Amino acid sequence: MLNLSAIRHVNIRKVTMRPHKYVIKLSIEERRTLQSLIRSGKTESCLTERAKIILWADEGLTIDTSAYRLDCHRETILYWRQRFLKRRTAGIPACLQDLPRSGRPASFSPSADSTSQSSRL
To answer: Does any domain span residue 10?
Structure first.
């Protein structure tokens, strides 16, 4: 028999889930474009992963679930969700591309390259 006097009254507060950060709602055209990027065999793997992040956000997947599926850090998921929302007007492929690197671009001249290799021999 259960002793009810031994059970303490527990204050149960309503547990609410944290709202998703950077909520994404896609149009039909955006969804089709992302799906075609994923299905294409010629798309770079980084673009495919980014497209999946955005599609899963639209479907309501949590940040942790997306990070687990892609085997990456949750900060990566947050970064690409935020970046998509900021650069969405640039178009789907453009907003998922890497940003240009800072600094002076490397310059190689054919003559300088051949002389440096011959001096190494």
So the answer is: no
